[in-house]
Amino acid sequence: MRLIDLSALWRINLWVTFCFALVTLACAGLLLHQAVADVERELQATEAVVEYLSDTAVRDPASLQPRLTQSLRHVRVHWLAADEAARIPAQAGLDAWLGRQLFGERHNSSRLLDLSDGRRVLIAVDTRDAVADVRDALQQLLSVCGLALSLSLLTIRWAVRRGMGLLDELLQALRQVSGGQLTARLREAGLPEARQLAEHFNRMAATLEQAQADNAQLTQALLAVQEQERTHLAQTLHDDLGQYLAGIRAQVCLLRMVADQPTVVEQTARALALNCERLQQGFRALVHDLYPVALQHLPLAEAFGLLVSQWQASQGIDCRLRVGEHLPLLPGASRTHLYRLLQEALTNVARHADASQVRVRLQRSAKGLRLLIRDNGCGASQPQRPGVGLHSMAERARSLGGELRILSRPGGGWALALNIPLEV
Questions:
Q1: H-type alpha helices, 107-191
Q2: pTM higher than the cut 0.85
Q3: In this structure, are residues 102 and 36 in contact, taking their beta carbons and an 8 Å threshold?
Q4: 254 phi, psi to nearest 5 deg
Q5: 111 dihedral zone (left: phi>0; alpha: psi -120 to 50; beta)
Q6: Is the pLDDT score of 387 beyond 70?
Q7: How far apart (Å, rounded) are the C-alpha atoms in residues 117 and 100?
């Protein structure tokens, strides 16, 4: 994470520096443009001053004194010896180069005067003061921009370091969660954004921890249900079907012994037929518990009607089914999920609802198929923690691609609504 920290910090610094450089260049260009325009006006006025000083020196040489002309801006008065060349010493360095770039040779006008008092003087326009002004302005601009850039980079470094510290904690917590340590939590402190991030992460971790606990509990419940089903199957095979098979075997042996007694043979044959019929009924009930065979041979509405009538007969609870017309066709897997969901819902009503009346409605809706199951039982004010039955129904609804809603209120019973979207 530290490598990510440094990499992100360097990228941010480079982008900020690049932006400051562009802004500085733009400001420098504007400053130079304005400064050159201002200096051009000053130098034009300076040329008029040079002309005025020259005319004045010619008329009255005594008025032109060195102590009066040494502090003039943009004007250089250079006193020459009789044999000295008539030129101002050339300037070198940054100022001279900048002056040539900005003004060229446009303001190099000069006047060489031989005064009546014997002195010789050269009066000329000098751009060194103008260049110095432009240079000072550029230096001030660069200093301000450099100071602003430094402060910005320091502020960014502080902010990024602080933000990366939060990301370090978040990454460490995520590693703990991915490793199965769902008890990891973040400190809810610092900036509002950091507190909000920590709050959402802690809520997510708590939800995952609760889901893990629920899954463990459901796994244990499913294992217990599996063992109960196996025990029930073994008891059915041993106590019910096994006894019939033992009786049939004994009756077959008896037939061999009483073959010469027609009356006994007839009685034994009737007992054999009765035992075979009960054995067949037991196998049908067992197969029906394992798989709804009616779905293979009956339409969905008739299979639902058979299930409701059998449940009503076994539970003694009034249950009425209302099936709409023109139901959509469902594939085999979807029919099984829908049938099992109704079966599980009726089982929950018998176990927990304390109801005396149940209404089941299966009909086509605007978006697909709708199943509604309502009872007049005790209901509940708050949904209890979903058990194996509710989770089973939720998973079947998810397999159907539908939405399962369970509603209840004290004394108002339970209502289960399943909406299955179907393609038109």
A1: 128-178
A2: no
A3: yes
A4: -65, -35
A5: beta
A6: no
A7: 36
63-93 per-position pLDDT tens digit: 776 666 666 766 777 677 655 555 555 555 5
Show me where the domains of the chain are located: 2-165, 297-421
For residue 143, report the phi and psi dihedrals to the nearest 5 degrees: -65, -45
- Residue holding tokens 């038109």? 424
Check whether 421 has a pLDDT greater than 50.
yes
Closest to 69 (Cα-Cα) out of 111, 102, 132: 111
What is the spatial distance between Cα 146 and Cα 317, in angstroms, rounded to a whole number? 87
Chain-centre distance for alpha carbon 412: 40
According to DSSP, the residues that pair with 404 across neighbouring strands are: 418
Fold of 297-421: Heat Shock Protein 90 (3.30.565)
Q: What is the C-alpha to C-alpha distance for residues 368 and 379, in angstroms, rounded to an integer?
A: 28
> What pLDDT shows up at residue 4?
44
Q: What is the DSSP letter of 409?
A: -
Cα–Cα distance measured from residue 317 to residue 360, given in angstroms and rounded to the nearest whole number: 13
CA 89, CA 109: separation in Å to the nearest integer?
15
Instruction: Tell me if residue 378 falls in helix, strand or coil.
Output: coil
Distance from C-alpha of 117 to C-alpha of 55, rounded to nearest angstrom: 15
DSSP structure string for 287-321: HHHHS-THHHHS-HHHHHHHHHHHHHHHH--EEEE
| DSSP class of 333 | H
Residue 216 contacts by C-beta under 8 Å, 6 or more apart in sequence? none
Q: Measured between alpha carbons, how far is 282 from 280 in angstroms, rounded to an integer?
A: 5
**What tokens appear for 264 in the block?**
């006994």
- Integer Cα distance of 44 and 109 in angstroms: 11
Q: CA 346, CA 316: separation in Å to the nearest integer?
A: 12
Residue 256 tokens read as 């061999």
pLDDT tens column, 330-369: 888 888 888 889 988 998 888 888 888 999 999 988 878 9
Mean pLDDT to the nearest integer, 282-291: 71
What crossing angle do the helices spanning 2-59 and 94-103 adopt, rounded to 10°?
Answer: 80
Of the candidates 74, 125, 127, the residue with the CA atom closest to the CA atom of residue 103? 127
Q: Measuring CA to CA, which residue among 341, 338, 304, 337 is closest to residue 321?
A: 304
Ranges 36-45, 106-115, 294-303, most confident: 294-303
Interior angle at CA 420, CA 327 and CA 296, nearest 5: 55
